[in-house]
Amino acid sequence: MTKTYAVIGDPIDHSFSPALHNAAFLFLGLDCTYIAYRIPKGELEYGIEALKKINISGFNVTIPHKVDMMKFLDEVDNECKLVGATNTIINENGRLKGYNTDVAGFLDPIKKRNISPKDSDVLLIGAGGAARAIIVGFGKEKVHRITITNRTRERAEELVKFAQGIGLESDYLDLQSAGEIANRYKFVVNATSVGLKGIGCPISTKNISKDSIVYDIVYVPVETPLIEQSKNQGATIIYGWEMLLAQAMKSFEIWTGRPAPYEAMKLTLLGRF
What is the domain extent for residue 52? Predict the structure, then answer.
């Protein structure tokens, strides 16, 4: 019997997940299919019941449901607990278990480059859901300090507390100052949507140096203004598509119990840009 998987969220029509996972199923000859299922905000409970009725095998969760979905889980992994959000669910006879693959997905491209984040200083731009997963990831890698910069100070201060709560040194910095002292940080990570569709740069890059590692989680376009400018400054670059791919592979492995086909998924993803 064909197993069905899905991604839920709103909006959902832009999602790369169906193409990625269907390519992987096809490549490995698995009798599985993956669909996009739009569930508007406020209709999550109803949507989950509908998924259970069709006996969905598992699903990914994207904006705006990553936090609310936690209420409907029977079991959660450690990362979900720490981040307070889930993005990958497995359905075992109506029992839903949640995972958060954003943490491992974020760290994977860093590890692939053999870069060690241990004891380093991080400048994190943004204070949304993705930022929490990134803080948890860096916490696991024992970074020295995370400085959080964001448009609104309040949101950033909440995350500073969150980082301190998991045992990290953390402080707040305004965007203007962050651009001026960006070269003091080994990692500069953009976790905002600034740069999406090629518009805007979250901080000034004039002080990014060849010792900086610049990681932009925005993946459309592949070369955001932040990446393009940092590249010109000689920085090491990590692309948003790498995190997207790594967290999708992790979901695939949770569902199927087998290694995800990296090349097939990568070619499918890059073919979409």
Answer: 3-100+243-272
